[in-house]
Backbone:
């Protein structure tokens, strides 16, 4: 079964725009939990400040890379969640700039640094001018969030989505088979291993056992799920056992490991491998 993840309606009027970020963060595991553990342990010295600032910079760069992928977002609702998180990030960045100014002020108060008077007309900007500029940027960011966050997030969340997303690994295999039958000139065969409706999704990463055979120009491919990945095997890379089954020591791992991956993303990956082999 394919599901469309678009909601029947937008966010309720009394639901904050940041709720999408909060929900997604609570459902996240490794990345978010590590930061939350650090906060819970305590962040109070210069090493913590430097490491958190560096981690935030790396995370922001990683988000740019993630969003640059052609399949970075499947639905407007995905975009709404990311937008919610990015607006929260802007708020935190604004607060961090304010706290930076206060932290520098405490260094000056302790007598460990000098803060010059603001530069006069015709003079080059100095540290006081730079800190004042950062405070102004902080206010600008907060104003931007206040004016645009709710409208942007709600508009994206309410936008109609038409992506037919698979409910489980079996539905993904069936959908990919249908797309390949339409988009590939060679023979495409769906190989089922269970009755319709008999598959129950588990967390073992092995999928349902069903796969797709694709006959190319002088090569036969097998698309399947195993070891928590989507894979494409070439028959020529396999070794036949005495019982007639094939074992493989090499295969192509596709670009996404999601059980509910967009079927067209998987089909595109398969077609790219076949095209490269035939080039």
Residues:
């Amino acid at each position: 079964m394919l599901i469309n993840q678009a909601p029947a309606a937008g966010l309720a009027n009394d639901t904050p725009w940041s709720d999408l970020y909060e929900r997604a963060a609570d459902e996240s595991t490794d990345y978010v939990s590590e930061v939350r553990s650090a906060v819970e342990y305590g962040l109070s010295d210069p090493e913590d400040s430097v490491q958190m600032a560096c981690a935030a910079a790396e995370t922001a760069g990683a988000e740019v890379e993630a969003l640059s992928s052609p399949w970075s977002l499947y639905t407007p609702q995905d975009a709404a969640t990311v937008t919610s998180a990015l607006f929260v990030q802007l708020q935190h960045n604004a607060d961090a700039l304010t706290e930076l100014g206060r932290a520098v002020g405490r260094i000056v108060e302790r007598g460990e640094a000098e803060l010059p008077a603001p530069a006069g007309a015709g003079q080059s900007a100095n540290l006081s001018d730079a800190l004042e500029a950062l405070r102004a940027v902080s206010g600008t960011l907060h104003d931007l969030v206040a004016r645009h966050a709710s409208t942007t997030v709600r508009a994206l969340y309410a936008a109609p989505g038409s992506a037919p997303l698979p409910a489980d690994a079996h539905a993904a295999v069936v959908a990919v088979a249908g797309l390949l039958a339409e988009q590939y000139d060679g023979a495409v065969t769906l190989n089922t291993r269970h009755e319709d409706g008999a598959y129950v999704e588990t967390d073992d990463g092995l999928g349902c056992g069903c796969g797709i055979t694709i006959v190319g120009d002088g090569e036969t491919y097998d698309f399947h799920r195993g070891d928590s990945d989507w894979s494409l095997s070439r028959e020529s890379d396999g070794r036949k056992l005495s019982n007639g089954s094939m074992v493989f020591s090499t295969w192509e791992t596709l670009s996404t490991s999601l059980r509910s991956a967009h079927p067209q993303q998987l089909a595109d990956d398969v077609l790219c491998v076949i095209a490269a082999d035939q080039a």
Notes: The CA atoms of residues 27 and 209 lie 28 Å apart. The two ends are 35 Å apart (CA to CA). Residues 76-109 form the longest helix (34 residues).
